[in-house]
């Protein structure tokens, strides 16, 4: 009887150990599964965020790149336009300096048309280097454009008014000698300068200031784009997005310099 009881006890003990062992394994499996699930979730979470981040970056890139390219082209156009205005202004300043000094060693200091042509040719060398200006529009810089210059001689009158004494236009063509002269006696649609008698100085040009009895010379420099050649005005000046502006569609990037000429350089008659 004792042996049977001991045998039953041993069997129960072994089963209990197996049960406990099974419970232990199950618990470990559950713990491991829980840990694995947690680790998997942690592993997948940054990957999903990274994928979402990459997707957002790709979308932003696809949207922003065209805008960025357009912006770069626009900035490039603005820089080119600024450079063209700087060129015409610098040429006008150079012309003013040459006109003031070209005849000072002569007995007759009056400025002639030849003096003006030489002044223009010398000043425009900063844009058309060497003999490119003589070769025609297609060889110029920029392509398909030539110098276009208005020169107005203005007298200050009583009552803080101003009167145009004379005006001329000299322009360069695609042949040599290259300079042509046109007399001005009224408003010219190609010029930003106005013609007037006893008018407010700002009517002739907004920056003109002149006293009674004083004389001023106004030089307006610009590029003359010729539509007879292949390019439109935007392509002629290597612009991508912005259409160049000027006095007209053909007279572009005008700059004005106003100064008081030295005594004896000009008379009431145009050179």
Write the layout of secondary structure elements.
Blueprint: H1 2-101, H2 113-123, E1 145-157, E2 161-172, E3 179-184, H3 201-204, E4 215-225, H4 233-236, E5 251-259
Antiparallel strand pairs: 1-2, 1-4, 2-3, 4-5
Helix pairs in contact: 1-2
Strands ordered across the widest β-sheet:
3-2-1-4-5
What does the average pLDDT come to? 77
The gyration radius over C-alpha positions equals: 42 Å
* Overall 3D shape: elongated
Number of helices, where a helix is a run of at least 4 consecutive DSSP H or I residues: 4
Q: State the distance separating the first and last CA atoms.
A: 149 Å
Question: What percentage of amino acids are in beta strands?
Answer: 15-25%
Q: Give a quick account of the main beta sheet: strands, pairing sense, barrel closure.
A: 5 strands, antiparallel
The count of strands amounts to: 5
Poorly predicted sequence stretches spanning 5 or more consecutive residues: 1-9, 15-30
Order of helices and strands: HHEEEHEHE
Structural class: alpha+beta
What percentage of residues falls in helices of 4 or more residues? 40-55%
Number of domains: 1
Q: Can you walk through the features of this model?
A:
This protein is α+β, with helices and mostly antiparallel strands and 271 residues long. The protein has one domain (1-271). It contains 4 helices and 5 strands, in the order ααβββαβαβ. It has helices at residues 2-101, 113-123, 201-204, 233-236, and strands spanning 145-157, 161-172, 179-184, 215-225, 251-259. Strands 3-2-1-4-5 form a 5-stranded antiparallel sheet, with helices on one face. Strand 2 and strand 3 form a beta hairpin. It starts with a helix and ends in a 12-residue tail after the last strand. Mean pLDDT is 77; it is low at 1-9 and 15-30.
């Amino acid at each position: 009887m004792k042996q049977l009881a001991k045998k039953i006890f041993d069997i129960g003990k072994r089963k209990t150990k197996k049960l406990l062992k099974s419970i232990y394994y199950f618990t470990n499996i559950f713990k491991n599964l829980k840990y694995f699930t947690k680790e998997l979730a942690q592993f997948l979470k940054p990957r999903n965020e990274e994928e979402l981040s990459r997707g957002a970056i790709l979308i932003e890139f696809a949207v922003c790149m065209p805008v960025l390219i357009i912006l770069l082209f626009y900035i490039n156009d603005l820089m080119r336009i600024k450079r063209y205005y700087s060129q015409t202004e610098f040429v006008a300043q150079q012309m003013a300096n040459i006109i003031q000094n070209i005849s000072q060693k002569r007995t007759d200091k009056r400025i002639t048309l030849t003096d003006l042509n030489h002044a223009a040719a010398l000043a425009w060398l900063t844009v058309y280097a060497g003999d490119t200006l003589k070769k025609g529009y297609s060889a110029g810089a920029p392509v398909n454009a030539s110098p276009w210059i208005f020169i107005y001689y203005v007298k200050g009158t009583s009552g803080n008014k101003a009167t145009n004494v004379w005006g001329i236009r000299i322009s360069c063509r695609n042949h040599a000698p290259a300079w042509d002269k046109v007399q001005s006696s009224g408003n010219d649609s190609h010029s930003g300068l106005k013609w007037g008698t006893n008018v407010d100085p700002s009517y002739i040009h907004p920056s003109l200031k002149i006293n009674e009895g004083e004389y001023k010379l106004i030089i307006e420099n610009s590029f003359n784009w010729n539509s007879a050649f292949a390019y439109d005005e935007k392509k002629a000046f290597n612009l991508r997005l912005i259409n160049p502006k000027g006095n007209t569609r053909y007279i572009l990037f005008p700059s004005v310099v106003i100064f008081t000429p030295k005594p004896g350089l000009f008379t009431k008659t145009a050179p």
